[in-house]
Write a structure and sequence with these properties.
The complex is a heterodimer of chains A (332) and B (294). Chain A contains 15 helices and no strands. Chain A has 332 residues and is mostly helical. In chain A, helix 9 runs antiparallel to helix 12. In chain B, 45% of the residues lie in helices and 14% in strands. Classes of the chains: A mainly alpha (332), B alpha/beta (294). Chain A binds chain B through residues 32-34, 48, 51-52, 55-57, 106-107, 109, 111-112, 168-170, 172-173, 175-176, 179, 186-187, 189-191, 302-305, and chain B through 74, 184-186, 218-223, 225-226, 228, 238, 241-246, 248, 251-253, 256-257.
């Protein structure tokens, strides 16, 4: 009986989250320096409104949707794979390393050669960090080692990013440190959607392919192996998917933390702790969370370009601490 | 106190004792310009704007060193002339080794060095950045008095006023188009600034002033499009070196709304510092939009 109800609950949850994302996406188009009704610009409205809608707010909303989704999704996959509730691209140093890759591409002049050098270089940064993490931590899924390695990687990548920006001859470069460390979707364009979109989609596809393996893995490695799950393949899919998706997302939006941490945690009880079902709802939840955070940024301090990472951290950090307390209590 | 070693020792001693015994004395010197004595002969400047002002006013051989920015051709108008002089980086040690009898600095940069030099009894004159044409004249006059080159400063100020008057009579007076500046990271400039005065002198209305902004302010791209100035002016340098900050200047929305005929590109060097050459910034703007209505 409960199985039947749960079977019904999952599609309902997905539909509810999808509706929430759609609503927030619509609001994201409407809210800005001035309120513009997105529907009216389809049929008419002033030329300025149409331009603002098509070239400023639509790319911003699309990026919020895609970046939030990939962050939530990769958080869910990493938590399932490493069987570690604290795994998240931001905490593990993946985002910071992707930022470093992007900064190197811009200031090394690679972007001037070809535009796709930006997401590709960020992707390489992300990939290196995940591979390095795996090497550092090995197979042991010990929470402390993983988090400490992530802290070290984040600091190193952040310091190198600052170094590159400080050495730049451009006087405004140093001001970019804030963007790369806290992230923002302000005044992005369709060019950025085109740069990051394909990589995020492919990355998301790879991450979704891990769903069945994560389900099996939740029953233990031995059971997973007996069910015919190849761990090497699963790990490769997760690593590549995270690097592709988070790398490209970071290249255009900077490092945005905590999305991948909070969202899977909030939704896990709602899907009966099933890692496979957690993936689609985490993607939707991540998109909703980031779109909402980006709306808050615009409503709280319009015109001041409050960084997205500030909002996600203000919500995320207390949650993280609460999570740590919970872990400690369970261990005691 | 003539050897650098002695000066450094004094610095250490003073730092240890924590007493600014000489601070009052040097502050008095820095503020006043009425004292009579021999003209300073070993003058060191530590700020791009005072570098250029001093270069224009000083007698040959009077300057001993300028800031490293003075010889950087991307920010300095007088880089060719500045290259003949040694450079400093505004560090107390290198300034003391030059054994200057007058140090010229800006009021916003190298504060720690200026305070240390003052405590060591070095004569320091500080210049606030020029926010208007009147400030330019005032700074010129003060530089002339400090270097005891009043004659030269007066001549420079007279030329500046003459050029400005000539440009003003040539500018439009029927329809004054609105010009807004747009820099890296979506920054624009408000009213009461040197930029506003330059733009107004060139026969435009200044967007930042009309919007009631002050100082350097972020103007979101959406707001710029809604404000819809006749011209958007940017500085070339922000797009010359790669940086994410300059991306906003090539944003598709900006390019579509303001066609190439409504985009003006200015030479930063004439806008960074208020000096006699600021008149060139006005002249370039007048030349860029000749048919504006005059």
């Amino acid at each position: 009986m409960t199985g039947g109800r749960r079977g019904l609950r999952f599609p309902l949850l997905v539909a509810g989250l999808a509706a929430l994302v759609a609503g927030l996406f619509f609001l994201s188009l409407a809210v800005g320096q001035v309120w513009i009704d997105p529907v009216s610009t389809l049929t008419g409205g002033s030329a300025a409104d149409r331009l603002i809608m098509a070239e400023i707010r639509l790319p911003r909303a699309l990026l919020g949707l895609m970046v939030g989704a990939i962050l939530g999704l990769s958080g869910a996959v990493l938590q399932g794979l490493l069987r570690n509730p604290l795994a998240e691209p931001g905490l593990l140093g993946v985002s910071a390393s992707a930022s470093l890759g992007a900064v190197l591409a811009i200031h090394g002049g690679l972007v001037a050669v070809h535009a796709y050098a930006l997401p590709l270089s960020a992707l390489v940064g992300a990939l290196l960090s995940v591979v390095l993490l795996q090497a550092l931590v090995g197979r042991s899924a010990e929470i402390l080692t993983l988090i400490l390695a992530g802290v070290a990687l984040t600091s190193l990548a952040g310091a190198l990013t600052s170094l590159v920006l400080n050495l730049s001859p451009n006087p405004f470069a140093a001001m970019e440190i804030v963007f790369w460390m806290l992230g923002s979707l302000t005044d992005r364009s369709m060019v950025h959607v085109g740069l990051a979109g394909p990589f995020i989609l492919v990355g998301a596809g790879l991450l979704f392919m891990t769903g069945r393996a994560l389900e099996a893995l939740s029953l233990g490695q031995e059971v997973a192996r007996s069910l015919g799950i190849r761990m090497g393949r699963t790990r490769a899919l997760a690593v590549l998917g995270t690097a592709l998706g988070v790398g490209a997302a970071t290249a255009v939006s900077g490092a945005i933390g905590f999305v991948g941490l909070i969202v899977p945690h909030l939704l896990r009880p709602l899907v009966g702790h099933r890692p496979g079902r957690l993936l689609p709802v985490s993607a939707l939840g991540g998109a909703a969370f980031l779109l909402a955070a980006d709306l808050l940024v615009r409503v709280i301090l319009p015109g001041r370009d409050l960084k997205l990472g500030v909002v996600t951290a203000i919500i995320g950090a207390p949650f993280f601490l609460w999570l740590l307390l919970g872990l400690k209590r369970r261990a005691a | 106190m003539s050897s650098p070693a002695a000066s450094l020792l004094a610095a250490v001693l003073l730092a240890l004792s924590g007493a600014g015994v000489w601070a009052g004395e040097s502050a008095g010197v820095a503020g006043g310009s009425g004292e009579v004595g021999p003209p300073p002969e070993r003058v060191v400047s530590m700020n791009l704007c005072t570098d250029q002002l001093a270069l224009l006013v000083a007698a040959p051989g009077q300057l001993r060193a300028l800031s490293h920015l003075a010889s950087d051709e991307t920010v300095s108008v007088l880089s060719a002339r500045a290259r003949a002089l040694p450079r400093n980086h505004g560090l107390a040690e290198e300034i003391l080794r030059l054994d200057p009898d007058l140090v010229i600095a800006g009021t916003y940069t190298t504060r720690a060095t200026v305070n240390l030099l003052k405590r060591l009894g070095v004569r320091v004159a500080e210049f606030a950045p020029a926010r208007s044409f009147a400030d330019i004249r005032e700074n010129l006059t003060r530089m002339g008095a400090l270097l005891q080159r009043e004659e030269r400063a007066r001549a420079l100020a007279a030329t500046f006023d003459r050029e400005l008057a000539r440009l003003r009579t040539g500018t439009r007076d029927t329809r004054r188009p609105v010009l807004g500046s747009y820099a890296a990271n979506s920054y624009t400039t408000g009213g009461g600034t040197l930029e506003a005065e330059i733009v107004t002198a060139a026969g435009f209305r200044h967007l930042g002033t009309e919007l009631g902004l002050s100082g350097a302010t972020r103007l979101p791209l959406e707001s710029l499009i809604v404000a819809n100035p006749d011209y958007v002016m940017s500085w070339r340098r922000w797009t010359a070196t790669p940086a994410r900050s300059g991306e906003i200047l090539t944003h598709p929305a900006l390019q579509k709304w303001f066609g190439p005929e409504r985009r003006l590109w200015s030479d930063d060097r004439y806008w960074i510092c208020g000096a006699p050459f600021t008149v060139e910034a006005v002249a370039a703007l007048v030349a860029a939009v000749p048919g504006g209505g005059s």
